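Sanity check

After download, print the first record. It should look like this:
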Amino acid sequence: MACRARVCYHDLFLEARVKKRFIAVVFTLTIVAVQTGLTCTIFNASRKGLVLVGNTEDMPSTDSFIYFMPGEKGKHGIVYVGFERYGVQGAMSDQGLFLDFNALNYPKMNPHPEKPGFGKDQWMFIVAMETCATVEDVIALFTTHNLAGWGCFQVQFVDKTGASVVMGPDKNGELFVVRKAGEYQVSTNFSLANPEFGARSYPCPRYKIANEMLQNMKELSVDYYRSILAAVHAEGEIPTAYANICDLTNGEFYLYNFHNFEEAAKFNVAEELKKGKHFFKMASLFPRKTNAQIRFEETLEQTPARILEDVFNKQGTKATIEKLAQIRSSYSPENGDSQLSAQVSKLVLLMQINGKLNESLEIYAAYAREYPNSAPIQKNLGDLYMKTGKRDEAIRCYETVLKLSPDNAEVRSALDTLRKSPASK
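Expected structure tokens:
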């Protein structure tokens, strides 16, 4: 079942680059991300001394990698997984500490300047992985520090004792902490503290499936976890690009490529970290592609999101807006074509993952101007303004949405919150 490739060192992913990309990714898991269908299912269970974690990573890309970074200067060693194009998505340390993220809607964390921060060049999640060994260590770290900059997501931490916790911003902007009750915990793309607030989908079928399978589990095993991953994986334009199972008890990492759960690359984390910093492209670990992956890769480059992303990378914002207008000319419905809207939202996500927040807002605002009578598009724009702190602009968008769709309770709630907040500077 296991397949391995020789160690491949890669200058592209030196420590500073990995950290920079990690920061960009976790900071930009926003409402735009979840509206394009970006999903992640995370689950863990402990039984008879065995602790396993499983998760799916869904992204419109197959340039995935696994990177081993040994500890130094008193810091823990870490294995990162992610995408060359879009950065690191999750991690496991040599202490048996695991983390992964669930994108949510627009909730954000309130700043607390009276508490110590993490420093200009330190990101709270990297600090947690490098310095914490247990869930309790992480909780202590986050409850005593200023969490300004925590974006629109919740995070699940699990340690090798079997303890786990899901944390994120509640609807009032303060940190919520939901500990595992029983032998398993599941999180998907809705807040465990406030399920109907900022949810990607609630109730969530992936959450229900994973919970039911863990509840009916006869034996905790890697094989049974593979069946859960298979049951919750995503397909379509944003498929499960890879998934992993982490045996925190024994320090083992199982990697699965493009929702193919019949083949795995298995690593012993401690042994790999002894080899120094090194990097594998997942393609080198899984040279035989499935038909589903081949078909996905054939069509990926022709999607409007990828075409527009390439234009942006080569020519910038103005050229991207012009190209979008050309593409839009083939879509004529009065309120915008749903497929094109999904592609533009996906483009915004991908740009933000690469740290281009302001540019993505400019592009989406230009697109939204063409659809003043589309409640979904105006809501998306309002959400982007809300995320970037542009209160007045967000209010105007949400007021437009309520004129078009008076029964939108989520927008009404967001509007009430914004009106009580300080005006934009």
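If your output differs, re-run the checksum step. Summary of this record's structure: The chain has two domains: 11-291, 301-420.
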